[in-house]
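Exercise 7. Given the encoded structure of a 150-residue chain, write a plausible sequence.
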């Protein structure tokens, strides 16, 4: 069995690399995709390609719409969507990605800090797994593929 896994959410830490490295160390047959993780490129892609906007709303709107095409494709193609809620920003995009994946019937694994349990209770209730470390996510993916415990 091969899995397509989309790594959604927070872009300011190494959690993606930790999961990918742990899964590669186990030779798991997983293809990973992710959003653009260069924050500046993600924010400015729309105006860099389609022209400047004097109003910040339209600047952000162009970038969000362009990025949404990548995100929609990746979530639709995914077997499992891992959504990381980080510490630095409110992560509204992560909540949207989790909801979109759930609406498409995708399996969702949430990765969050325990102190966010209450704030994310509705997201967590829709997820198939809630993890508190990248290691736990990698172990979930390993179990899904192998059916054996770590």
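Solution.
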């Amino acid at each position: 069995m091969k899995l397509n896994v989309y790594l959604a959410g927070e872009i300011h830490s190494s959690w993606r690399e930790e999961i990918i490295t742990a899964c590669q160390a186990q030779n798991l047959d997983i293809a990973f995709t992710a959003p653009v993780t260069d924050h500046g490129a993600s924010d400015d892609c729309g105006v860099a390609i389609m022209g400047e906007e004097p109003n910040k709303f339209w600047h952000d709107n162009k970038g969000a719409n362009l990025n949404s095409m990548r995100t929609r494709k990746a979530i639709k193609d995914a077997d499992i969507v891992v959504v990381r809620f980080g510490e630095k920003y409110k992560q509204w995009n992560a909540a949207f990605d989790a909801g979109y994946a759930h609406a498409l019937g995708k399996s969702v694994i949430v990765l969050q800090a325990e102190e966010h349990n209450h704030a994310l209770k509705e997201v967590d209730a829709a997820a198939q797994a809630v993890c508190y470390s990248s290691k736990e996510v990698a172990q979930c993916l390993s179990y899904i593929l192998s059916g054996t415990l770590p």
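Remark. Strands lie at 3-9, 30-33, 80-84, 107-111, 129-131. Students should compare their own answers with the one above.
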